[in-house]
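Write out a sequence, fold above all:
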Amino acid sequence: MHYGRVYHYIERINELSFFGEGEFMGEELSKALEIHKFTWNLFGHEVQVSESIIVMWIIMAFLIITAYVLTRNLQTVPKGKQIIAEAFVEFMNNFGKTNIGHHYKLFTPYLGTVLLFLGMANIISIFNIIPNPEQLYEITGLGFFEKLPAIHMRPPTKDINITASFAIITILFVLFAGIRVKKLSGWLKSFADPMPIMIPFKILDYFIRPMSLCFRLFGNILGAYIIMELANAAFAFAFPAALSIYFDLFDGGLQAYIFVFLTSMYLAEAIE
């Protein structure tokens, strides 16, 4: 994939002397922006899997295990860990009721899943304090870790392929919602509402909206990631921890919420 302007800035960093480490910062940032791929032998066939996909598998496994733990042995009167699960469900129900309307129960499970996944994906960088297999091998000397891929916990949403996939799935879900609630005939008639001249514009919306969702999420997460990489390279022992609170945690959570909020607006418009 091409980052165009991003790599232009990297070249500029290399040309500048930033405390004598401009070239080092440029090289480190270039490495961080690469989409690393691993080749696995599967039934005699070589299969390439990107680091973004592997990180997504890790996030999915974490969310599935967490959901299982929080929903085991449900009680009529919630207590302990069940309160956490019910609080989130209640939050999503209220969110859906406010933004979608009386059909909210059909769509809040999807919105809640996307919010949890994107929220986790956007803030995953904070878990880089956990040693990766390469570092564990250097620490322990165990050959088991040497055979594992050296995965770095980078946000998969800085990969435009991932954000594009989420945007496409979302717009398909919006299409499904419109047909599910209005039936096919009613959904088709809605393109001519309030007048037939709106038909081409409403069709165009189904192409513009996923592009907007894709590039908004991608641009914000990539921008925050670049800033954190530059901060880590320039001030490794000073500001990165404080900046991480905003660029990793706050901004990451905010972008996940915005993605889900916009999706709810599109759903509301599709089924009204």
